[in-house]
Design brief:
By secondary structure, the protein is an alpha/beta fold. It has 10 helices and 13 strands. The structure holds oxa(dethia)-CoA. Oxa(dethia)-CoA binds at residues 29, 33-34, 37-38, 113, 152-153, 156-157, 214-215, 217-218, 221, 251-252, 255, 279, 310.
Length: 322
């Protein structure tokens, strides 16, 4: 059976990181409040000239190197972002040009924090149907550019960064095939106003700033994530006990703990990077995945569950054997 096999991961973070204490010098907040309510200690912030495409290109190069591939081997780039370099063209085309693999398919996907899961689902479908053979799936964001730095309820929560994976279409047989085994994606536009940006090209003609009713998002996140994880497990004919690693969207350590508890998943199996990266939206899942692959926790043959929930609302999960 033709499957999309993960053969490389990579990530990139801006050099500049900002601690909670530094934020507390500018706005009415404290290290204690942020750590206790979110688990966040630091976030990386893009410097002038550092963009969604430049971070994405660096993450992509590192993923290609890990896969032992050259840019010319790639015939599909799907890039998830809510902070594109420009309204158009797609940031994926800029990354394609930076890498020098022009001519294949390249486009962006907009599903905010679930963007990487949506991008992975789309790329997997295209690889399995033979539209492409080797894909770069990237999540990259510069949320610092759409934050209201006066709003303490949102600006402390987010950071910038990028993560990328290489997927290769391969014929996988046997009892333990590698590759993406099952994916489920959802959206519910009724909750648009709980997490959104108050601007855009066709409404205000401005970029806008992020607005969020955090408490309500939190409530929906725990329920939706536990549900979609169960759906994916059922599709794959597996149970939570079979999972080696959960790599969740890194929004809030309390959401991750609550989801793991609801599922009866030991916290040692949950990859957490939220303390150092904060919420990097579409970049957070591939960033965390890359950290756990590079530090040796996630190894070939492991069953890994990815999940995310964000603006829209959108949410989803994907199960793969790496
Ligand atoms: O990635 C997309 C998905 N996004 C999420 O998953 C985010 C989900 N939500 C959350 O992570 C949490 O709801 C937050 C971290 C955003 C907020 O935590 P909370 O425990 O739900 O706090 P809250 O919103 O109920 O606020 C509690 C208090 C409020 O004060 P009052 O009204 O009780 O006097 C806030 O004004 O904390 C206050 N507060 C702060 N205090 C210090 C809000 N932000 C801050 C802050 N520093 N930065």
């Amino acid at each position: 059976m033709r499957r999309s096999v993960l053969t490389g991961t990579g990530s990139a973070l801006p050099d500049r990181s900002i601690s909670n204490a530094e934020l507390a010098e500018r706005i009415d907040t404290s290290d204690d409040w942020i750590v206790e309510r979110t688990g966040i200690s630091n976030r990386h912030i893009a410097a002038e000239g550092e963009t969604t495409s430049s971070l994405a290109t660096l993450a992509a190069r590192r993923a290609l190197e890990a896969a032992g591939l050259a840019p010319k081997d790639i015939d599909l780039i799907v890039l998830a972002t809510a902070t594109p370099d420009q309204t158009f063209p797609a940031t994926a085309t800029q990354v394609q040009n930076n890498l020098g693999c022009n001519g294949g398919i390249a486009f962006d996907v907009a599903a905010v924090c679930s963007g990487f899961l949506y991008a992975l689902g789309v790329a997997d479908s295209m690889l399995r149907t033979g539209m492409a053979n080797r894909a770069l799936v990237i999540g990259s964001e510069t949320f610092s550019r759409i934050l209201d730095w006066e709003d303490r309820t949102t600006c402390v929560l987010f950071g910038d960064g990028a993560g990328a994976v290489v997927l290769e279409a391969r014929d996988e047989t046997g009892d333990a095939p590698r590759g993406i085994l099952a994916t489920r994606l959802h959206a519910d536009g009724a909750h648009n106003q709980l997490l959104f940006v108050d601007g855009g090209p066709s409404t205000t003609g401005t970029v806008g700033k992020l607005r969020m009713k955090g408490r309500e998002v939190f409530r929906h996140a725990v329920v939706n994530l536990a549900q979609v994880l169960q759906e994916v497990l059922e599709d794959a004919g597996l149970t939570i006990g079979d999972i080696d690693w959960l790599v969740p969207h890194q929004a809030n350590a309390r959401i991750l703990d609550a989801t793991a508890k609801k599922l009866n998943l030991p916290s040692e199996k949950v990859v957490m990077t939220v303390a150092q990266h904060a919420n990097t939206s579409a970049a957070s899942v591939p960033l965390a995945l890359d950290v756990a692959v590079r530090d040796g926790r996630i190894r070939e043959g492991d069953l890994v569950m990815l999940e995310a929930m964000g603006g829209g609302f959108t949410w989803g999960a994907s199960l793969l054997r790496v």
